[in-house]
């Protein structure tokens, strides 16, 4: 989500000062495209290297945390998109709706935690968080559809998704063991992804 915040912050001044719907949609789609370009490969890398990253950052003591990542893997994606949808609705004076929606999401998260955590533990909390963010996305996307729409051709997902997948497969087979090899695997994966994006002109 930090990566998405960087993109959203950079684009927001242009997005908020758009003179018409066409210009607004242009900047909205630019933000979505570069969010996807940063977030999707990061999520693939996180999923493939989840055990390696946990031991690299926190040590083997927290190895069990790696089992939670698959349940949280889509959370950053929807969290990133929610930032843009939030900005869109705020720009169209839907502040009351946003406030009520996030309040309802918070209440739902508490209810789901009460229901799931006692039996599933941390996995239940992860599932609860993911469900709430997906629902927030679905509702905000439905309301925001009158203000903006996705230009699927411009997003270049036909290159971003395969590039992320190729990067993930290569990292998977590298199987880094120590800290140096883990960092090297991350750099190799990022380089391969960047090269595919550049060669296919997905930028």
Terminal Cα span = 20 Å
* Low-pLDDT stretches: none
* Average pLDDT number: 84
Percent helix: over 70%
Topology as H/E string?
Answer: HHHHHHHHHH
Largest sheet: none
Helix-strand category:
mainly alpha
Oligomer kind: single chain
- Taken as a percent bin, the fraction of beta residues is under 5%
Number of strands: 0
Radius of gyration of CA atoms, rounded to a whole number: 19 Å
Describe the global form: flat
How many H/I helical runs? 10
Care to describe what's here?
There is one protein chain. The chain is mainly α and 203 residues long. The protein has helices at residues 2-16, 21-48, 50-57, 69-72, 75-91, 95-120, 122-144, 152-155, 157-174, 179-199. Helix 5 packs parallel to helix 7 (122-144). The longest helix is centred in the N-terminal third of the chain and has 28 residues, at 21-48.
Q: In brief, what are we looking at here?
A:
With 203 residues, the protein is mainly α. Helices cover 81% and strands 0% of the residues.
Please tag this protein with its features.
single chain; 203 residues; mainly alpha; 0% strand
Write the layout of secondary structure elements.
Elements: H1 2-16, H2 21-48, H3 50-57, H4 69-72, H5 75-91, H6 95-120, H7 122-144, H8 152-155, H9 157-174, H10 179-199
Helix pairs in contact: 1-2, 1-5, 2-5, 2-9, 5-7, 6-7, 9-10
């Amino acid at each position: 989500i930090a990566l998405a915040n960087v993109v959203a912050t950079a684009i927001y001044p242009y997005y908020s000062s758009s003179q018409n719907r066409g210009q607004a949609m242009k900047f909205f789609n630019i933000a979505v495209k570069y969010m996807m370009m940063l977030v999707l490969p990061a999520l693939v890398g996180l999923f493939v290297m989840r055990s390696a990253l946990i031991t690299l950052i926190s040590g083997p003591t927290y190895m069990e945390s790696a089992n939670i990542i698959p349940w949280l893997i889509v959370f950053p994606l929807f969290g990133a998109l929610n930032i843009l949808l939030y900005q869109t609705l705020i720009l169209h004076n839907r502040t009351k709706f946003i406030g009520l929606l996030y309040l309802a999401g918070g209440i739902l998260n508490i209810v789901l935690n009460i229901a799931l955590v006692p039996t599933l533990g941390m996995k239940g909390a992860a599932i609860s968080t993911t469900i709430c963010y997906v629902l927030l996305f679905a509702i905000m996307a439905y309301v925001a559809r009158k203000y903006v729409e996705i230009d699927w051709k411009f997003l270049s997902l036909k290159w971003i998704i395969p590039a992320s997948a190729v990067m993930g497969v290569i990292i998977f087979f590298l199987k880094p063991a120590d800290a140096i090899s883990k960092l090297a695997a991350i750099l190799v994966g990022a380089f391969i992804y960047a090269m595919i994006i550049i060669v296919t002109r997905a930028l």
